[in-house]
Amino acid sequence: MQKIRKSVRKAKPKAVARPLRPLSKRESEVLQWVIIGKSDRDIGQILSISPKTVNAHVESIKRKYGVANRVVLAYDVARQASSDESAGSAT
After folding, report:
1. What is the separation, in whole angstroms, between the first and last Cα of the chain?
2. From CA 16, how far away is CA 48, in angstroms rounded?
3. pLDDT tens-digit series, residues 27-62
4. Which among 26, 11, 12, 15 is positioned nearest to 56, based on CA atoms?
5. Is 60 exceeded by the pLDDT of residue 7?
C-alpha cells in the first residue's frame, strides 16, 4: 500500500484529470476494466482480444493521460469521476 501511495504522490504533478487526446471506443472499454483492477489477461478474455492488445491499449491510454502506470491512471480517473459527481449533485 505504501508503494502505491508513493507512486501516486510522485506522478501526481504530471497527471491530468482528462486525457490529452480523446480515447477510442476500445480504449474506453479497456479503461473501465483497468479502473476496477482487472489484469490485461482478464480484460483480454472479457473483450475477446489478446493480453498484448490490451497492454497496447493501456499504454496508449497512459500516454493520453500523461501518467506513468496503471495505478496512477485508475486513481486519477476515479478521482475525476468522483469530483464530477460531487459537482453534479451540488447544482
Report:
1. 35
2. 30
3. 999 999 999 999 999 999 999 999 999 999 999 999
4. 26
5. no
pTM above 0.85, yes or no: no
Asked if 7 and 71 count as a contact pair (C-beta separation under 8 A), the reply is: yes
**In this structure, what are the phi and psi dihedrals at residue 48, rounded to the nearest 5 degrees?**
60, 45
Question: Are 43 and 33 spatial neighbours (Cβ–Cβ below 8 Å)?
Answer: yes
CB contact set of 32 (below 8 Å; sequence gap of 6+): none
Domains of the chain: 24-84 (1.10.10.10)
Q: Give the chain's largest Cα–Cα span.
A: 43
